[in-house]
Specification:
- The chain has twelve helices and ten strands.
- By secondary structure, the protein is an alpha/beta fold.
- It folds into two domains: 129 residues, ATPase, nucleotide binding domain (Nucleotidyltransferase, domain 5, 2-Layer Sandwich); 162 residues, Nucleotidyltransferase, domain 5 (2-Layer Sandwich).
- α1 packs across α2, α5 runs antiparallel to α9 and α6 packs across α8.
- The mean pLDDT is 90.
Length: 309
């Protein structure tokens, strides 16, 4: 019997699962952080190895029978970074006499896509702190829309909403707009009451801009015109992502799974966005079929079965 391990790497915790070739779960576990963009890569590799050890302890399975291990984590969309993590983990595993047949690193979005549709065609729209959209067609080809980061993209995300909200507050301080409830909310929450404080917080104190997004949503829910305009603009940006993916994938019906707190939490923005999606012809939103770590398992098994390891 062949076995596979799939891992969903996160900034605070990492989820792993050990399955047999029929996807029956043998063991599950949770480890420490594995986002190597945030934490030192040595900390990340140690965290992953500890999780692998926990998954394989007391299960009566030889490591040689675990044919492939795959982790999806932030930053792995860049091949050089993914390779660096792969190489270091394999080196440490060998040093610790932990046999690994194959270890592969993929992006967190990639395993989320695979899990959402259980390996079948579909697309995911992610909007949390940032935003990106991935799609898989019937040929198995992967397509991306967005994902250009906060300087060039991240439309519809917490960062983008927060940034536009602070811009509206800046204009309010100057008298360049008719005023917004958001100004008072920002003052109450962050003690920012004038333009000097705002500039210092953003440019000197590394202010966490996405934290303003919930306040923009709160103000919009209270009929603030400026904040409602911001959210409508952000929704239009996300709908552009969907429209672009429809043209790329060319399916009769584009299946979408929504991921990320900005568009899945029960709030004014997410509810309005989801209502707008329902108005689009030949687009259907569905709940993910499987978790991201099960998506990692599917990829690990696929690579082994097709001799791609």
């Amino acid at each position: 019997m062949n076995y596979f391990i799939g891992i969903d790497g996160g900034g605070t915790k990492t989820k792993g699962v050990l399955v047999d070739e029929n996807l029956n779960i043998i063991n599950e576990g949770i480890g420490g952080p594995s986002n190597f963009l945030v934490f030192d890569i040595n900390i990340v590799t140690d965290s992953i190895l500890e999780l692998l050890s926990n998954l394989t302890n007391n299960v009566n399975i030889s490591n040689k029978d675990i044919k492939s291990i795959l982790i999806g984590t932030a930053g792995a969309g860049r091949k050089d970074d993914a390779q660096r993590l792969e190489d270091l983990l394999l080196k440490k595993a060998e040093k610790n006499n932990f046999h690994i047949n194959n270890f592969r690193v993929e992006s967190d979005a990639r395993i989320a896509l695979e899990g959402a549709f259980a390996g079948k065609p579909g697309s995911i729209l992610i909007a949390g702190t940032g935003s990106i959209m991935f799609g898989k067609d019937h040929q198995g080809d992967i397509h991306r829309v967005g994902g250009f980061g906060r300087m060039l993209g991240d439309e519809g995300s917490g960062f983008h909403i927060g940034r536009d909200g602070l811009s509206a507050v800046a204009k309010s301080f100057d008298g360049r707009n008719n005023g917004t409830l958001l100004t008072q909310l920002v003052k109450d929450k962050f003690n920012i009451s004038d333009s000097v404080q705002l500039i210092n917080e953003v440019y000197k104190n590394n202010f966490d801009i996405p934290k303003v997004a919930p306040l923009v949503i709160e103000a919009a829910e209270k009929n603030d015109t400026i904040c409602r305009d911001i959210l409508n603009s952000e929704i239009n940006h996300l709908l552009e992502h969907i429209s672009a993916m429809k043209k790329i994938i060319k399916e009769d019906v584009l299946l979408i799974s929504l991921i990320g707190g900005t568009i899945t939490t029960n709030n004014y923005y997410a509810n309005l966005f989801q209502a707008r999606i329902r108005e689009i012809t030949n687009v259907k939103v569905q709940v993910p079929e499987l978790s991201p770590h099960m998506g990692a398992v599917l990829m690990a098994r696929y690579f082994h079965q097709n001799n791609l390891v």
